[in-house]
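Case study B.
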Amino acid sequence: NAGVTQTPKFQVLKTGQSMTLQCAQDMNHNSMYWYRQDPGMGLRLIYYSASEGTTDKGEVPNGYNVSRLNKREFSLRLESAAPSQTSVYFCASSEASGGGKNIQYFGAGTRLSVL
Amino acid sequence: EDQVTQSPEALRLQEGESSSLNCSYTVSGLRGLFWYRQDPGKGPEFLFTLYSAGEEKEKERLKATLTKKESFLHITAPKPEDSATYLCAVQDMKTSYDKVIFGPGTSLSVIP
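Model:
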């Protein structure tokens, strides 16, 4: 059972470079999420997608863009990376959408360093 | 504004020494409270959902309880393999989408 798969696992970028973080789930879930996790701050929502073709901003969307390519895949793009975007990024998915009870399943994370 | 706090920030226990972790929350209306376990270098793993005050859930050495203002994760006779960060999260009934607010976590170390 693959669950939620994220690639790459590690990445080092220089300031100003761009990259896309990939996420795919095989649980036929409607909702997908991108979080960042920083020491002492918990998980913070970057973007959310309730279904294919829809995306919404979360708590910290600045500097990021997302694409819900299909029901399985949800990508996160950094157009011009900044040192403040050094973090661990997690993708998650859940069955719930539109206000349902929201148990989320997480990928293993992408550890990103921006120099 | 929705808020989740957890205490203590870190907890060190001897194997077999029972204790509790606290999660305090502020929401307009609680749809659900979630506990997750996170091992180093991995993503959070779902443990429990609690929906209403007075509810309890158990899994092996873990027991989660819920009141109107807080939740406790009780750990009975912990073993070293229980060492992890435990995250609490809440879902507000009044948000327009499936937004879940996570607390900062409690890092638990169980010493043999």
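Chain B has a mean pLDDT of 93. The remaining cases will be described in the next quarterly update.
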